[in-house]
Write a structure and sequence with these properties.
Oligomer: single chain
Strand content: 35-45%
CATH architecture: Roll
Distance between the termini: 26 Å
Low-confidence stretches: none
Number of domains: 1
Helix content: 10-25%
Largest sheet: 5 strands, mixed
C-alpha cells in the first residue's frame, strides 16, 4: 500500500524565519500556502519538503534530504556554490574527493548543511 503512495521529507528547524530564505532563495524551492504557524511546505519537483519548527532541529547527524540530479548535478553544485553554500568534506570508505565532490566510481555526491545543521545532499544518480 505505502509503496504506491508519494512520501514527503520533513525537516526540523529552530526558527522558520531563518530557515525559509535558505529553502526558498538559496535552494530555489517554491513555498506553498500555509496557515499553520511554524510550518512551511515547499514544492521540490513532484515532492514536498515540509519544514517545521522543533526544539530538536539540527540534532540528526545523517542526511535528511537528497536530490538525485543526474546530468544536472554539476550545474546545481555551481549554482549553490554561487549562492554561498559551503560543502562538507567527509572521509568515507571507497570515496575520493574531486574538490568538494565525493566520488565513488561514476557516482558523484556533495553534502551541505542548512542554517540549523541539517545535512542535505545532491547526487548525480
Amino acid at each position: 500500500m505505502l509503496g504506491d503512495q508519494d512520501a514527503q521529507a520533513t525537516v526540523a528547524v529552530k526558527d522558520l524565519a531563518v530557515a525559509r530564505p535558505f529553502y526558498e532563495e538559496t535552494l530555489g524551492l517554491k513555498p506553498l500556502p500555509s496557515d499553520q504557524p511554524g510550518v512551511q511546505a515547499f514544492q521540490a519537483g513532484k515532492s514536498l519538503v515540509l519544514v517545521y519548527e522543533s526544539e530538536f532541529a539540527g540534532t540528526n547527524k545523517a542526511t535528511v534530504l537528497t536530490w538525485a540530479l543526474g546530468e544536472t548535478f554539476d550545474a546545481a553544485v555551481e549554482m549553490l556554490r554561487g549562492r554561498g553554500v559551503v560543502f562538507e568534506k567527509y572521509d568515507l570508505p571507497a570515496m575520493s574527493h574531486d574538490g568538494d565532490v565525493h566520488v565513488a566510481g561514476r557516482m558523484r555526491v556533495v553534502w551541505f548543511k542548512d542554517p540549523d545543521g541539517n545535512v542535505l545532499s545532491l547526487g548525480n544518480y
